[in-house]
Amino acid sequence: MRLEEMLSTHPRPPQMGVPEITAFIRTCFECADVCLSCADACLSEEQVQSLVRCIRLNQDCADICEVTGKLFFRQTEADAATFRAQLEACIAVCRACAAECDKHADMHEHCRICAEACQECLQACVQMQERYPSPSAGAIS
Predict the structure, then answer these.
(1) Nearest-angstrom CA–CA distance, 24 and 7
(2) Rounded Cα distance, 80 and 94, in Å
(3) In the chain, domain spans
(4) For the whole model, what pTM was predicted?
(5) What is the DSSP letter of 48?
(6) Residue 117: what pLDDT?
(7) Contacts 24+ apart (CB under 8 A), 99-107
């Protein structure tokens, strides 16, 4: 609720609707939290060595998703090129993390949940990308 309040009272309102940008930010933050939890759960598994790549991608995904959420929460003097680059990074890491977690989903429920969260964040980033197309597609820079 406070995210909406902050965005609604900001002197420079978001370029899109407050509910839309808030949902995007929450998706990014939730994915980050789920990835951190999955990494922690993987560290507790008996066959932790087989999950090293998963743990690494969980941690990378968590960091990138958190930064993505933070960038889109800031409203003052936003830079479209930075947004595009961050969305590309978030899409790439969510895709990689989802694929890796999916490999372990049959054996580890936490990996199934994480793969789903990564897919949701990936889709949210793809949708957000439509608002920030590349300059060659006629975007504002």
Answers:
(1) 13
(2) 21
(3) 2-7+19-134
(4) 0.91
(5) G
(6) 98
(7) 100/53, 100/54, 100/57, 101/38, 101/54, 101/57, 101/58, 103/54, 104/42, 104/51, 104/54
